[in-house]
Amino acid sequence: MKKQKLSIAFIMLCVAAAPVADIHAEKAGKGGISPEMMSRIRASYPDDATTKALRNALGNSDIDKIALN
User: Fold this and answer.
1) What does the DSSP assignment read for 2-68?
2) Per-residue model confidence as pLDDT tens digits over 17-54
3) Domains: count for the chain
4) Is residue 10 part of a domain?
5) What is the pTM of this model?
C-alpha cells in the first residue's frame, strides 16, 4: 500500500513538474504567469475524476507525511 501511494505521489509530481519546467525555461527572469501559460498548464494534464481525487488528496495532506511515507 505504501509503495502504491509513493508511486502515485511520484507520478503526480512528475505530471506537475513537466509544465512548470517548460514554463520556467520559457519565462526565465521575466516573472509571472500569463493567462496563456496558465491555459497550457491546465491543458497539460487530464481533468478527470482520478486526477481530481489525486490533486485533492495531495492538496489536503501534510507534505511531511507524504514525503516521509
Assistant:
1) HHHHHHHHHHHHHHHHHHHHHHHHHHTTT-S--HHHHHHHHHTS--SHHHHHHHHHHHTS-HHHHHH
2) 666 555 555 555 567 888 898 899 888 888 899 988 88
3) 1
4) no
5) 0.37
Domain that holds residue 47: 33-69
Residue 38 inside a domain? The answer is: yes
d(CA 29, CA 32): 9
- What cell was used for 15? 505530471
Residue 63's Cβ-side half-sphere holds a number of Cα atoms within 13 Å equal to: 2
Residue 4 resides in a domain: no
Q: Is residue 12 part of a domain?
A: no
